[in-house]
Design goal:
420 residues; four-stranded antiparallel sheet; 39% strand; globular
Length: 420
């Protein structure tokens, strides 16, 4: 329209100065390439830049002292809870900044190092004893499993679970209140206690043990929550495959390396066997028979290494097992045989933990005689008997960065030993 000199509005035909382009919804509209990498560039490579602060910081990362001595001198001690509560498992985070503890009083503790700081987070949510607590490779997440037939995934910086494992196949049917909307025969709840859980394949998967099977899950984490619907989770998990030890009633121990990509998962069964599963082939590839004569192995320990130490590939072909009323045994995956025994500790009834130092020179073991034992990998006798504990030493773990050893007792006490 136009305005005349007298102020009157006069209708004018509507015209465009240029051709109107299509909105893109037409079927005849040509497809466009959104992104295409350059592969035929003839330009020379840019000159090398001066190292940045970040690269300098990376080069300054401390390395584990491979020629260190064994930890045998008491440095710190801590009562993990106000009332005595058995500590079932302990594990350092990969950066050594935290110590995760699984307790029999239905809770877990994330203790900040050093122990003398007195700082930590209590993780409460299970209705049964917490059997295991494990950290992710990126040091941001934790997994716990319990006798209440559930497992929970936690953030290092929070005290509420991000995701809960209740049903076997997935948690897609979780309703707004955070519980399963209805029972599903095709997605049943776990029928037995969850004894073991861990991250696997550099945090890409989660392995969970219940009964005589272990399940591999893929997952997606979304820690955001609505203030009005705080119990609603946006995180999801889905089963990839389930593996069974068909000849055993229970899986008594499991070990898989998460610090680098490994296809092997080791399982001990109630039938006194240790079975090796190749996850790439999705099948069992070897079975060690009668690993221990008296009872089944209650712990399997692989050389997990450390972010601060490196070893040749052959160093990861060894693993340890321990069982009640028997010695600790060192096995070689290449020869498929026991190559050494370690004796001296006392273990008749309880599950006492094992660990291999990041330098691969020492083995530590809990014991029922209120002591922890440190062995030289190359000999069958112990180097040090760490006394002073006031109850059964249920678990031990080496620090990933320093020559230090943490021990845990059934009365809820933690002790930290260092190299003299």
């Amino acid at each position: 329209m136009a305005v005349t000199t007298k102020g009157q509005v006069v209708d004018q035909p509507l015209t465009f100065k240029s051709k109107v382009r299509s909105s893109g919804y037409s079927a005849e509209s040509p497809r466009r390439t959104m992104f295409q990498p350059k592969t035929n560039s003839s330009k020379s490579a840019p000159p090398t830049k001066t190292p940045s602060r970040l690269s300098n910081r990376k080069s300054a990362i401390k390395e584990y002292a491979m020629n260190c001595g064994s930890p045998s001198q008491l440095k710190e001690k801590l009562d993990i809870a106000e009332k005595p509560a058995a500590i079932n498992k302990i594990q350092f985070s990969g950066d050594g900044q935290y110590l995760a503890c699984a307790l029999a009083n239905n809770s877990a503790q994330l203790v900040k190092m050093p122990l003398s700081s007195g700082k930590g987070t209590s993780l409460v949510g299970h209705n049964g004893a917490v059997n295991a607590m494990t950290c992710s490779h990126d040091n941001q997440w934790l997994l716990s499993c319990s006798d209440d037939k559930t497992s929970m995934l936690w953030s290092k910086s929070g005290n509420e679970p991000i995701m809960e494992f209740k049903t076997v196949n997935n948690n897609f049917s979780v309703d707004k209140e955070g519980s399963t909307a209805k029972l599903d025969k095709e997605n049943p709840m776990f029928g037995q206690e969850i004894k073991l859980i861990q991250f696997y394949y550099v945090d890409k998967f989660i392995l969970l043990v219940s009964g005589n099977a272990f399940n591999m899950y893929k997952y997606h984490l979304d820690p955001t929550k609505s203030d009005l619907k705080r119990y609603k989770t946006n995180s999801r998990y889905k089963i990839v495959k389930s593996f069974q030890m068909t000849e055993a009633q229970q899986i008594t121990a499991l070990s898989a390396i998460n610090s680098f990509h490994s296809y092997l998962v080791l399982c001990a069964g109630s039938n006194k066997t240790v079975e090796i599963f190749d996850m790439n082939a999705a099948k069992s590839v070897h079975c060690f028979q009668d690993v221990h004569s008296a009872k089944p192995a209650h712990v399997i320990c692989q050389n997990q290494g450390s972010s601060y130490a490196s070893h040749p590939a052959t160093a990861y072909d060894m693993f340890l097992t321990a069982a009640a009323n028997d010695s600790i045994k060192l096995w070689d995956l290449r020869t498929k045989s026991c190559v050494r025994r370690y004796e001296g500790h006392s273990n008749r009834a309880h599950s006492c933990g094992l660990d291999i130092s990041p330098c691969s020179k020492f083995i530590a073991s809990g014991s029922e005689d209120r002591a922890a034992y440190v062995f030289d990998v190359r000999s069958g006798t112990y180097l040090h008997k760490l006394t002073g504990h006031t109850d059964v030493v249920s678990d031990v773990v080496f620090h990933p960065m320093y020559s230090q050893l943490a021990t845990a007792c059934l009365n809820g006490k933690i002790r930290l030993y260092t190299e003299p």
